[in-house]
Amino acid sequence: MKVFRFLKLKFRDQLILSYVLLISLPLLVLGLFSYQSVKGLVVEQSIQHHHTSLMQLANYENNVVDQYVRSIRAITINRQLSAILRRVAIRQPSRGIEYDNYREIHAILHTLTAQDGLLSVKLALSGKANFIAPYFDFFPIELLMQAPFYQEYLAPQQGSIVVLPSSIAQEIRPVSSDSLLFATRLVNWEANNRTLGYLFMEVDAATMLRPLTQFRIPEDSSLLLATPNFTLFHATNPPTLLDRPTQTEVSVFSTLIPSIQGELILSTPAQRLPPGGRNLALLQLATAALLSLAAVSFALYLTRILNRNVQSIIQSIRLIEGGQFSEVPVSSSSDEFGMLQNALHSMSGQIRTLIDNVVIAERRHKEMEFRLLYEQINPHFVYNTLDIVYWEALSAGEEKLAELARTLTDYLRLSLNHGHKLISVRNELEEVEKYIHIINYCYHDCVTLTIHASEAAQEVKIINTILQPLVENAVFHGILAKEEPWGSIDINVKMEDDAILFVVTDDGAGMDCAKMPEYLASNSTHSGLRNVDNRIKAYYGQDSGISVDDTYQTGCRLTVRLNLFADTLSLDSSPLLPVSK
Description:
Layout: H1 11-76, H2 79-90, H3 95-109, E1 118-125, E2 136-140, H4 141-145, H5 148-154, E3 162-165, H6 166-169, E4 179-188, E5 194-204, H7 205-208, H8 210-213, E6 221-226, E7 231-237, E8 250-257, E9 262-269, H9 275-321, H10 336-375, H11 380-395, H12 399-416, E10 422-424, H13 425-442, E11 447-453, H14 455-458, E12 461-463, H15 467-479, E13 487-496, E14 499-506, H16 516-519, H17 527-540, E15 545-548, E16 556-563
Parallel strand pairs: 1-2, 11-13
Antiparallel strand pairs: 1-5, 3-4, 4-5, 6-7, 6-9, 8-9, 10-12, 13-14, 14-16, 15-16
């Protein structure tokens, strides 16, 4: 399979490919990530800039438009004008009264002429007023009602201000082609808001829309100002943008012009980087590419050095594999490869030593098997002989001798344990009791034995003949070594976490704790202690073994610790050798 071709490459090729994958690809990914991050940041800033600019532009435009709206609203709530229009609508005035009406209307409307960009003021009246003025245009409201746009745009509005384009107003009165009209209804405030006329204020579109025309529209974008009925302003950058087909997504930003119920809309291509942001993103990609190239060059150089050291180590491994342990060279380098080469040299010497030790241990093991075989051939012969001694002693009336023979038989059975490695703590303690019984027979009851062990502790399985050598050491090197050869031995068995402890205490001559390492040495006379400690460490690990309590003042106190759940050798219950039944 293609997936495993990498494993068939040489180390040098694998190293090069690994460096390319582990160094170059992350750099490229980092470059792409940086590009996307810069792009997103620039786009986000661009969007924020567009939104802020549009809000400011809408605020400026609303301030301009609001000047006209406030002026018109001031006219609509003028009760004097309402009274004049109400008189004109009710009756035909005389020429003197008509002149007075015109003069009052002129004074009221004259306040509008101060507005910048005002072109004309038009007033559609109910009634028969015949006013002609150079700055104000008066005409009957009936003429307005006949216009098509009246029912569609003016009639539904109840006092609201409507902005009309010049093309609409041309249907009733002549206006400039570059103008906009603010229109609103004038009502009779005393007669259920009855319509008295309509006021039209014609303003220069360039003046009113100056903030929009001066706004710098982004590239490939458009700016639109629209009311619910008309589009008052629409500009694009470039001007030919409207003729192009739409190929990209568009981001739309909008805000309101409250004074005329208009909406200002900016449309710009979505996720588009400005020129400065685009250059920054390309710089990120170029930097990532250069770093990747430098990483690959460094990887090739480093691979050449590492491959030379690895080949030297491979050669040493092949020498060890061929059994040429003495041919493994020593390195003078102090780096990791030199340390590894020297470790291989040291390991080759240790392997050779271990092989020699294994050969010797195997020879000793076979000798021990022969010895065990010799010692355990038909133990029933010994049992039967002791049984004969037991019955002969009873026949001769020697009950103590008979009891000694029976005790020795039980002791041998427990010691041999039918050839098994494991024995329960209960049987191990019983073996010690049989041993002390024999000792007391030989030395006139010189030892008093006490045992403390819980039922749970007695059920634990351990390797056999652990306590008997310790008790024997306490008897011969402790109690019998005193001037008065008698004393006591106490055995306390307790569980502690994942270990079982045997504390053997005697009140004999005592033991020098400082000499404990000597007692456990190979040439010590305390061979029983040494053998037990070696067996415990072999089966239960180096943390287990025999220790001496140096705080105990009288006699000696030895503690045997067995880590039951340590990483020890495998123990089973099968016999070491076959035992006849």
